Amino acid sequence: MKAVGARLPRYDGIGHVTGRTVYVDDVRIPGSLWVKALRSPSHNAKIVKLDTGPAEAMKGVHAVVTHKDVPLNVYGHLSALGIPGDEPLLAEGDVRYQGQPIAVVAAESEELASAAVEAIVLELDEQPALFDVRKAFDADAPQIHQWGNWYPHFEAEMDRRQIRKGDIDAAFDQADVIVQGVYRPAAIEHVPLETQVCQVVPEPSGRLTIYSCTQALYFSMGVVSAHLQQPLNRFKFVGGTVGGGFGGKVDTATETMCSLLALKSGKPVRWRWTREEEFLCSSTRAPWHMEIADALTKDGWILGRKMLTLHDSGAYARFSPYGLTKHSFHHTGAYTIPNLHFDGYVVFTNRVPTTAMRGFGVTSVSFATETHMSRVAHVLGIDPFELRLKNANRIGDTSPNGVTYTDPSTVPTIQAIAESLGHELPGEYRAMTPGKREGDLLPEHLVGQLGNPEAH
Amino acid sequence: MKLTVNGIEREVESAPLTPLLFVLRDELEVESPKAGCQQGGCGACTVLVDGEPRRSCLTPVAAVDGAQITTVEGLGSPENLAPLQQAFTHHYAAQCGFCTAGMIMAAQAYLDNWGAEDREMIQTALAGHVCRCTGYVKIVDAIAAVARGDSFDITITAESHDTTNVGGTQ
Q1: A274 contacts B97? CB cut-off 8 A
Q2: Could you tell me if A345 and A365 lie in one domain?
Q3: Which of these, A125, A166, A397, B78, has the minimum number of CB atoms within 10 Å of its CB?
Q4: Do both A389 and A433 map to the same domain?
Q5: CATH number, domain with residue A365
Q6: Which of A274, A294, A315 is the last residue of a domain?
Q7: CB of A1 within 8 Å of any CB in chain B?
């Protein structure tokens, strides 16, 4: 426990301040080819014609790779958990978001690689696109995904992440007041200062050495191994130095395509995304649509919550079902609500696929629930600190997914915030602890849930 | 063409319009300036040209023929850190590190030209330098500490670095 509370230097701090830290783009490999991608100019279209011949005929172009070169083109980021894949490594038949990779080339210079991309013949048949998750369920909405417009593979092949706890109808029947709110945080691009960079070297042994800026090295190994249908021992990943990720370098964006190009050309390749590519084609934090209705007593008890979440997954599923699951577990925030009715959908749109970013799925729901708590306090005319302390998680309370809290920190956290803001709390709230509920803090509606996760 | 890079005169063979950034990185193998955006928007490629901060990605090498170029490698070494390098380490002003070299060069020019411990002036000097990790506060703290003349114990920092860089056995 020497490290806890101690002021330790960063292990990589000296390297950073002296310019000695070696990022992927700093690795010098003589004779490397430059990689560029042909990306979809369309949000949604059928591919009518794709002819890479003119690019392949160019002097100095050593390899062009399309879906035909990928041993397993469709593989999902959650496939290792048994969930079927939906996303092609390189577009096949159709494109579903602007910036989707269709072909990649490796050439002797960056300029030549760009010219080769320009030379590829691409003809598209434009299709109507879907951008608004709220319209995805309409009968006349464009159908944009082979699974339908929302993800259908939650447990038992449910088409939503669903939580039912307690007796939601009774809670709303008993309510003095119902407060509703809609919360819609927008997409956010991670903007790491280091764009996606990858270098791959084909070794004489037949193995590939892959210099990767991934945040998830072993995960990326698995993804490359699956697409290439080769065992893990064919790949030596070199990573661990990431020039900013924030969740945006969890998805395997470059390593597989670079590996295919290195194998096909027999030469080392390097791919450094431009800032435009990073902004336009890389994954983002998802935009979320969240609707909350709370059943409340006049004195500020939350009897029940109904919530609907539409998680904008973009064109493919990637990790979104996982993000929505985390989201659902946190949909009461740091507070205890015994009666719950939650439905969350992972909705497909023609945006770039969305992914993790700093608290995957939870930052969105925290924004919604905390804003809603303040709204409730305003409507009821109750101090927002007191409302939060009253409903705060206590030892023995149960979470939406039935976990009994043993050491919840809501009470001391809210007290500390009040103190730091100079907000005077009444004595009973100042004296509050995270201990088990009793007396005034154990009203009738909370008796059943106390220490009894099986009750719902 | 010739450049004096961190005190050493170097011949340059790249084409005249090659950005200084890629002359440094690809021809001279001075890797600390980074290609963050290649359009002058992020500051990660900043170097000193005759003492003034410049975006090396937007600077054709021919435009600085004969100039003195200073990068973070020229400020100090791991064994002999410059005050700003000590301060950035001490104040945890470098997280992922990708913006750090550019930040430090802009800060060095600020200290050389102005030197005041004025947070607003420091922020102005760093305008256009993007950091996505730290939220900037620690970076301004570090520069202000140098402006103030704080001292930092290099030996402890260097020793701690050696002992903690062995796989987390501390």
Answers
A1: no
A2: yes
A3: A125
A4: yes
A5: 3.30.365.10
A6: A274
A7: no
Please write the tens of the pLDDT for every residue from B6-51.
999 999 999 999 999 999 999 999 999 999 999 999 999 999 999 9
A377 touches A387 (CB < 8 A): yes
- A73-94 average pLDDT score: 93
Of the three residues A274, A306, A323, the one that is the final residue of a domain is: A274
Tell me what pLDDT residue A309 has: 98
- Asked if B132's CB is within 8 angstroms of A192's CB, the reply is yes
On chain A, the residues whose CB falls within 8 A of the CB of B29 are 28
pLDDT reading at B157 higher than 90: no
The pLDDT value recorded for residue A452 is 58
Q: Do B35 and A243 touch (CB under 8 A)?
A: no
pLDDT 10s digits, A261-316: 999 999 999 999 999 999 999 999 999 999 999 999 999 999 999 999 999 999 99
Q: Among candidates B107, B83, B87, B99, which has minimal Cα distance to B135?
A: B99
Q: Is the pTM of the predicted complex or chain greater than 0.80? A: yes
Contact at CB, A193 and B101, closer than 8 angstroms: no
pLDDT of B168 reads 33
pLDDT for the residue numbered A302: 98
First to last CA, chain A: 39
> What's the domain count of chain A?
2
| CB < 8 Å to B79, chain A | none
Helix (H) or strand (E) holding A151: none
Rounded to whole angstroms, the Cα distance separating B44 from B93 reads: 15
Average pLDDT along chain A: 95
Most B CBs within 10 A among A18, A29, A189, A190, hence the mutation to make, goes to A18
The hierarchical CATH code for the domain B2-74 is: 3.10.20.30
Closest CA–CA distance from residue A274 to any residue of chain B (Å):
7
B16/B30 Cα distance (integer angstroms) = 18
| Facing residue for A274 by CB, picked from B38, B73, B92 | B38
Same domain? A357 vs A423: yes
Task: Give the residue ranges of DSSP H helices in A159-306.
Answer: 168-174, 217-228, 255-265, 275-281
Q: Tell me whether residue A104 is in a domain.
A: yes
For A404-455, what is each residue's pLDDT tens digit?
999 999 999 999 999 999 999 999 999 999 999 999 889 988 888 775 555 5
Q: Give me the pLDDT at residue A146, please.
A: 97
Residue B156 in this model has a pLDDT that exceeds 90: no
- Give which of A207, A65, A67, A41 is closest to A122, Cα–Cα: A41
Superfamily for B83-163?
[2Fe-2S]-binding domain (1.10.150.120)
Question: Closest chain A residue to B43 measured between Cα atoms?
Answer: A193
Q: Which of A445, A184, A451, A185 is nearest to A340 (CA)?
A: A445
Residues 337-396 of A with CB under 8 A from B: none
Rounded to 5 degrees, φ, ψ at A319 are: -100, 5
CB pair distance less than 8 Å for B165 and A11: yes
DSSP assignment string, A86-123: --BSS-BSEE-STT-EEEEEEESSHHHHHHHHHHSEEE
A:26-45 residues touching chain B, CB 8 A cutoff = 26, 28
Residue A430 lies in a domain: yes
ipTM computed for the complex:
0.92
CB B71 within 8 A of CB B25: no
Judged against a pLDDT cut of 60, whether residue B163 lies above it is answered with no
Residues A201 and A320 occupy one common structural domain = no
